[in-house]
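Fold in tokens:
===
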Amino acid sequence: MMKPSTSVQQTHLLRASHIQRAHEKLRKVVKHTPLEFNQSLSDILDAKVFLKREDLQIVRSYKLRGAYNKMASLSEEEAKKGIVCSSAGNHAQGVAYSCFKLGISGRIFMPGTTPRQKVRKVQAFGKDLVEIVLTGDTYDDAYAAALEDLKVHDRIFIHPFDDEKVMEGQGTVATEILADTENSIDFLFVPIGGGGLAAGMGSYFHWLSPHTSVIGVEPLGAPAMKRSLERGEVLKLEVIDKFVDGAAVKRVGERTFKICQEVLEDVALVPEGKVCSTILQLYNEDAIVVEPAGALSIAALDLYKERIKGKTVVCVISGSNNDITRTSEIQERSLLYEGLKHYFIIRFPQRAGAMREFLNNVVGPTDDITRFEYIKKNNRETGTAFVGIELLNKEDYAVLIERMKKYQVHYQPVNDTPNLFSLLV
């Protein structure tokens, strides 16, 4: 998917001067986040990898930039009406902070599945100027509810991505990157939810660093931009995986789509399990705490390992609003993705010593049984157990299966059976 050539007449791109104007407006409000060289990633990938640390922003994500730029552009009459918005979390925090700073009242619709940590932070940033309404299961549900609210209350809608002022604010991330490096940037990896960050940054790089390949990154379970670009029109996905909540949308913006058509060279899709492994890697190796959407750009690097070798690469870490209660799920998804954790339904003979034989003969010396659920039933020749086994190396799986066959263990793998897996795990 190569970005098409554009002319001044037909382009939908944002103007660099407008993004620079937004940068001046935001200068005293947002934090100029660091552009850090990352040695460990650079060594692994044989490239010069820099991280744009928007996880260190005031509201711990880049979303403040677009929200404030839009709200600061409202007329006095519009500001008196108050605002309404929908968000999966980070946009809500940016809007809430902007409400407090600008003295504008706001009503914020968020999915009922939003991590509680994000909901609490929204209220803390907006204080008594914001009202939070939790509704539905996805961002799209919250968006629909916000539009219904607009029919009743005459407020100004602050879109999380499909608005020029919002996109111009998000684009100021690019002004800081280009101001902070003397290196010629070969690749820019940008996470995509609705597409506002990619559209804003992509526009600025198009005008000021046109040789840079801009790569958008989406979670595999919510490829709204990828599928839309492939079709040549905005598509609405019927079902998405909501795990990467900051980037899981069913439908991208009309305006962001048109801009991304021009500025993105490609859109990479990253499995949610890979995102989880990246979160843990960043924490363990660099003490960087990121949310799932914040890990997307780094998680995509392995897919471009050959292309970026010897090149200068910038990855945008978009946010760090992670809920600590999700840690166990992140660890679980990572182990499953890495092939280190496997679940089985095993039918044991109902006789004394059957389970002991399984432990002695089948389970290897470095294998760890992490889950075992078994109920002995009367008048049955076999009893069924649900067993979870964690391996030291993914290569140990083949050895484990060989031992099960050798000792005639009746087993059914569960990992690759989605409906059964979701029921049991």
